[in-house]
Fold this sequence. Notes:
The chain is an alpha+beta fold. The protein is built from 7 helices and 3 strands, in the order αβββαααααα. Strands 1-2-3 form a 3-stranded antiparallel beta sheet, covered by helices on one side.
Amino acid sequence: MKWEPAAAMVGVLALGFWLVYSQGTMGALETRAGALTEPVRIADERGVLEAVREDGEWSLRLLYRDGTKSEAFGEAECRRVLGDEVFRRVTESRTNWAFRLFNITSWAGVVWVAIGLGGQVAFSGRMLLQWLVSEREKRSVVPAAFWWLSLIGGVMLFAYFVWRQDVVGVLGQSSGLVIYGRNIRLIYKRKRRDGRAAADDSE
């Protein structure tokens, strides 16, 4: 058994953990009751912008990962310092049904959810394909397309879980990516060997 696939698995796993860790873990932030939040980054600090509607006015705070909080400030100051787009996102993020359904805060998140769903469809499709081919052949068969769908779905889900900062999901996909790629390589190596053998026999 070669050592390279095992080393590649460790490498992919380390890459996934690093990507999740480098985005920063938000941890449990103490927000006010009924608060809307929007992830923000100011210089090297990550945190959330918290917005609460009080007496018809918006009260906002910046909450950082280390537990520090800014003093509350109003809509005008938020727009002046952070911009109109940030204010709009934090105050409208949870009013959109799609944002609530997919637990996202912006339309860019829809793209990532689509990537995750696409990866899951590829994963489900590989099993359906394997089942149909096996039924047709009347024996258990794993076609090359099974491994291609596994690899494509695995890459998409790996990217999605990194975006979600989901270490469990990253762990689940890391080793699989190497195995899928390795099986594809072995299939095509076998085909090349068989092709050369057939050419030698015909001479």
